[in-house]
Specification:
The chain is mainly alpha-helical. The protein contains 15 helices and six strands. A hairpin with a 5-residue loop joins strand 5 and strand 6.
């Protein structure tokens, strides 16, 4: 029993006696050759793909291609490959999918060069609209509708789209935080100035540009007084719009502002009785006589300052800087009335008797 070998010793006895073949070095060489060959292949393939996308080294050849109305980018890629413009149809098709090129490519016949990179090829198939510049001057005292009509008539967007964006668009300006999202909410905020727009500008970009100008013009020296006043920015802008519509010239703006502030602080003369609100309700284009203005005084609306006390709900036009300054810093007077003289400027009065005598005189303008 002592001389017997166990199974493990028996099985491995022969193997231990045979010399091992020196194959490790050969396997290492073969592994190195395979890895090097694969890497070289991938490098060449990768270079060819990059060259095709970026057109680093490509032949100079012009070809003509027609893109049908019902084209798709895979068919277009195959045709470009057949014409020698691209080397890999699948790669160009992948590029088109990644960049959503199909949404921008327009059907038509084009002449392109094979030296173009993928991006330039796609751009060759895009009809870029001519971006014509238009200079637009928006005067003071224009309503929202009048302002947007001026912009639309200049060829920048259309009136319906501008009105819809003005009513429904959201704009990230803090001065609009307290303005309810409702039709006409931008009334008074489209600052009167001269603007340059592209005719291809979107309604949103147009309105954002004008609102940004308001934000710049309503600077800190105009905002700071609000902290010490009992009026909000929207209320000051409303007062400024009334001044802007009423004043014959800038020199009488602070006097008109004084009348408005005096009435707002009065216990007995709470109705502002400003004809400009009647004009706003009627529409400036419908006012042709004093009778038309009087008709506006009968319209039941919170904007009617003959029927309702205090300020209207919001501005009635876009005021300029001078009117805003007048709203913030009125003259210190005891005027509660004013009326239009035949010379087209206003006369101011402290009491109703003086006012009534004037409007019955031949010095008062009828309209």
């Amino acid at each position: 029993m002592a001389g017997k070998k166990n199974v493990k010793e028996y099985l491995y006895e022969g193997l231990e006696q045979k010399p091992k073949a020196n194959t490790g070095c050969l396997r290492g060489i073969l592994y190195f050759v395979c890895i090097t060959t694969a890497s070289l292949f991938l490098a060449i393939f990768g270079w060819n793909c990059v060259n095709d996308v970026l057109a680093l080294i490509k032949p100079d050849k012009e070809v003509q291609i027609t893109i049908a109305e019902d084209f798709n980018t895979r068919e277009l890629a195959r045709e470009l490959a057949e014409l020698g413009v691209v080397n890999y149809a699948w790669l160009f098709s992948l590029f088109c999918d990644y960049t959503d090129a199909e949404e921008h490519i327009e059907p038509g016949t084009y002449t392109i060069n094979s030296r173009l990179d993928y991006n330039a090829i796609v751009r060759s198939f895009v009809i870029i609209p001519v971006r014509e510049e238009v200079t637009i001057s928006i005067p003071d005292a224009r309503t929202l509708l009048e302002t947007l009509t001026i912009i639309a008539e200049a060829g920048v967007s259309d009136l319906e789209s501008l009105l819809r964006e003005a009513d429904e668009g959201e704009f990230a300006f803090s001065f609009l935080d307290d303005v309810p999202m409702q039709p006409g909410r931008l009334e008074g905020y489209l600052f009167p100035d001269t603007y340059v727009f592209y005719t291809t500008a979107s309604p949103r970009s147009v309105l954002r540009r004008i609102l940004n100008n308001f934000n710049l013009k309503f600077s800190d020296n105009l905002r700071k007084p609000l902290a010490t006043m009992d009026y909000s920015l929207n209320e000051i802008l409303t007062i400024a719009s009334l001044i802007q519509m009423e004043a014959a010239n800038s020199s009488e703006m602070k006097s008109i502002s004084a009348v408005i502030h005096n009435r707002l602080n009065s216990n007995t003369l709470r109705n502002l009785e400003i004809d400009a609100t009647s004009v706003y309700l009627m529409g400036r284009e419908n006012i042709h006589s004093a009778a038309d203005v009087r008709e506006g005084r009968l319209i039941d609306s919170p904007y009617n300052t003959f029927l309702y006390e205090g300020l209207p709900p919001g501005p009635i036009c876009s005021p300029g800087t001078e009117a805003i300054r007048a709203a913030l810093w009125p003259d210190s007077t005891r005027y509660y009335f004013y009326a239009l003289h035949v010379d087209r400027t206003h006369r101011f009065f402290r009491d109703s008797d003086s006012f009534e005598r004037f409007i019955r005189s031949s010095d008062a303008a009828s309209y």
